[in-house]
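ok trying this again, last paste got cut off
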Amino acid sequence: MKPLRQMSSKILVLHQDNIDTDQIVPARFLTTTSRQGLGEVAFADWRFDSAGRSRPECPLNAPDFSERNILVAGENFGCGSSREHAVWALMQFGFWVVISSRLADIFRANALKNGLLAIEVDEPTHGWLLAHPEARVEIDVTRSTLRLPDDRAVEFALDPFARHCLLEGVDALGHLLDQQALISAFEHRRQEAA
């Protein structure tokens, strides 16, 4: 995982509410436990027609989509099954951040555990973002702020451990492995005391 401290990006807006994990990565692509190739099938049924041709009207097929690393979605994003594949697909597609007025709890937990910043914002901020699909915003993970183009800073909630992992570019296991010297020292002291 790469550290995520600060970033500036144009947003990509999907106005739909209740985008579920099967829409993010359709179940027919869940034949692997590998993350590889999932970005190619992210939102497959929205991006491609039944013959596999790209749908030009889909915002995810915009010519500049690779410059848009922040996804702004309608309410209740990531509902449905708890598949981590949805998070992996979003990240491989190029998103570092997902913003909504409400995120499904399991999706948000999976996102943060895998290095995807999942932010819930208040309704006025969410409405502003949905109405300005060409906006460039800034994210500061250290301060838990989203800065809008009018220089307004919007705070978002972020668990301290999730913040630490995002800033350091590690997951929970990586964090534990980073503590190996301290763990070994503790075990050594405990054995000496016994």
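PB: full thing came through this time. The radius of gyration is 19 Å.
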